[in-house]
């Protein structure tokens, strides 16, 4: 994002607690449910722990 002077605006970073729990798909395959309690509606899942964590990171960018 550029300002009138052509400089970039400062970017803020936040740290949020993320919970990743064991879950299962309808077929019985193992999966993981991930959510951020501080961000209402930020819930997702993944076939692996890392995929669920990556998905909740992406979701947190959208929820704000």
How would you summarize what this structure contains?
The chain has 64 residues and is α+β, with helices and mostly antiparallel strands.
Question: How would you explain this protein's 3D organization?
Answer:
This protein has 64 residues and is of the alpha+beta class. It has one domain. 23% of the residues lie in helices and 25% in strands. The chain contains one helix and three strands, in the order E-E-E-H. A three-stranded antiparallel beta sheet has the order 1-2-3, covered by helices on one side. Strand 2 and strand 3 (43-46) form a beta hairpin. The protein is elongated and about 55 Å long. The mean pLDDT is 87.
Write the layout of secondary structure elements.
Layout lengths: L18 E6 L5 E6 L7 E4 L2 H15 L1
Antiparallel strand pairs: 1-2, 2-3
Beta-strand content estimate: 25-35%
What's the shape?
elongated
Number of helices: 1
Number of domains: 1
Instruction: Name the helicity range.
Output: 10-25%
* Overall pLDDT: 87
């Amino acid at each position: 994002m550029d300002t009138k002077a052509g400089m970039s605006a400062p970017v803020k970073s936040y740290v949020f607690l993320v919970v990743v729990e064991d879950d299962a798909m309808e077929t019985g395959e193992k999966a993981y449910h991930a959510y951020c309690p501080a961000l209402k509606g930020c819930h997702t899942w993944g076939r692996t722990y890392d995929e669920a964590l990556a998905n909740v990171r992406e979701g947190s960018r959208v929820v704000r």
